[in-house]
Write a structure and sequence with these properties.
5-stranded antiparallel sheet; alpha/beta; 18 strands; globular; about 20% strand
């Protein structure tokens, strides 16, 4: 057996898991399971631990290595697990030397030295970021990620991630453009720019370029790129260039995911966020004027410490006031060492109930958007022989097609979860064998 990577958490972790797999395999590791963990909630950490125990029962001879944000912030906890053979830090996991060292430790004639079990350095000492071009992406994925930034300089009171990722650092613009060009030449139709705090991109680089400038350079210098998408952003940091590109270039997808976290100003202050409720509403209105069909997603936390029912209601109202389509709801999770952990806590039952109401509001918002799409014609990226995605990241039911193709399709209905489509100008009996129309 080779190297299997189990990924928890964000899109950035998904990208980094591909780097881990490549580096570990090149180091000669075999029969090894790597857990790329997440630390954003207590539940995420618990899931990683449960997965470790389950995998060890299923594959007792496999070596288990734990890395990722939870490994960085709670390395000794994982090292103390009998099932774990090695703990690798969040910076080290991206470097071949860490996996070569793991192979040497595993090959030691007297077993693994306990003193070498933890290979985790000070993440705050990391100041540079190397680009990672993934040959593994040549496997034909229609949508691929390019990591342009890592770490975060902000200290939101609920968040442990800066201690797992370190301070903000960026990949130089030229290297990003080269990566995108290479991926497009391999046939990938859609590129997603990803990072921990994406809108802080460039502050550490010469000239301090911003995300908008990077986006503009990619689109200008890689004209063959069909679709460019941006992952989660902090709206208060969105620069003028980014807004201009949203308005001017159709290849930048009309879909933004916003880190809003709350709709109440007092809670936002206690979170140490840098925007107000009105800032969020104004930003969405401004972008919608530039790109009227844009779809917004957002992260919102339910049950942050001191949150009253009235404060929560303002978060609930924000779904309508910002006209959100996709909602990512986080029940507040008390993370040891964060300022919020020392604040008066909301009862667990209330947190769950508020999260449930937020998710219901998100489901209703998505349904409204699906209904509104009926009759529109959309450019659909075929992800698999059963599903595609519109420019707005809405899922589309597909019945056989070539992954990676972008099809112009008319929306005829939806099934509550995915859009149904037809090909404009064709009668149903004239459809190519690869695509069949769906009706709601």
């Amino acid at each position: 057996m080779g190297v299997d990577v189990v990924t928890f958490g964000c899109r950035l972790n998904a990208f980094e898991s591909e780097v881990i797999r490549r580096e570990a395999e090149q180091a000669g590791l075999s029969d090894t399971i790597v857990i790329n963990s997440c630390a954003v909630t207590n539940e995420a950490v618990a899931q990683a631990r449960q997965s470790i125990r389950k995998l060890k029962r299923e594959r007792p001879t496999a070596r288990i290595v734990v890395t990722g944000c939870a490994a960085q912030t709670q390395s000794q906890m994982f090292a103390d697990m009998a099932e774990v053979d090695r703990v690798v830090g969040n910076d080290e996991k991206m470097r071949g030397a860490a996996w070569q060292a793991a192979r040497s430790a595993f090959a030691a004639p007297f077993g693994i030295d306990a003193s070498e079990k933890v290979a985790v350095a000070d993440i705050m000492a990391v100041t540079e970021m190397a680009p990672h071009l993934l040959d593994g992406y040549a496997r034909g994925l229609p949508r691929v990620f390019v990591q342009v930034q890592n770490g975060c300089d902000h200290r939101c009171t609920f968040c442990i991630i800066p201690f797992g990722r370190g301070n903000s650092r960026s990949v130089p613009m030229g290297a990003v453009v080269d990566q995108v060009r290479a991926l497009v030449e391999r046939g990938h139709a859609e590129i997603v720019l990803t990072g921990v705090d994406l809108t802080s991109y460039g502050a550490d680089l010469p000239g301090a370029p911003k995300l908008g400038q990077l986006t503009r350079q990619i689109l200008r210098h890689v004209p063959e790129l069909k679709r460019l998408r941006i992952s989660s952003i902090d709206s208060i940091e969105a620069d003028r260039d980014l807004l201009d590109v949203i308005a001017d270039d159709a290849r930048l997808m009309p879909h933004l995911h916003l880190s809003l976290q709350s709709g109440d100003d007092m809670i936002l202050k206690r979170m140490k966020r840098r925007h107000s409720r009105q800032d969020a509403i104004d930003f969405c209105a401004q972008v919608r004027r530039l790109r009227p069909d844009i779809a917004f997603g957002a992260d919102i936390i339910a049950g942050f410490p001191t949150e009253s029912e009235e404060m929560f209601a303002r978060s609930l109202d924000l779904v309508d006031e910002c006209d959100l389509t996709f909602l990512h709801v986080f029940p507040y999770s008390k993370r040891p060492g964060t300022p919020a952990a020392r604040m008066p806590q909301v009862a667990g039952g209330a947190i769950k109930e508020r999260a449930k109401r937020l998710r219901a509001a998100g489901d209703a918002a998505l349904q409204r958007r699906l209904v509104a799409e009926v009759g529109a014609t959309r450019e659909v990226l075929i992800e698999s022989d059963t599903q595609g995605r519109t420019e707005h990241f809405l899922p589309v039911a597909i019945d056989g097609d070539v992954p990676g193709m972008v099809r112009r399709l008319a929306v005829t209905g939806h099934d509550g979860a995915r859009l149904s489509i037809v090909i404009p100008g064709l009668a149903e009996g004239e459809y190519p064998e690869s695509i069949r129309p769906h009706h709601s």
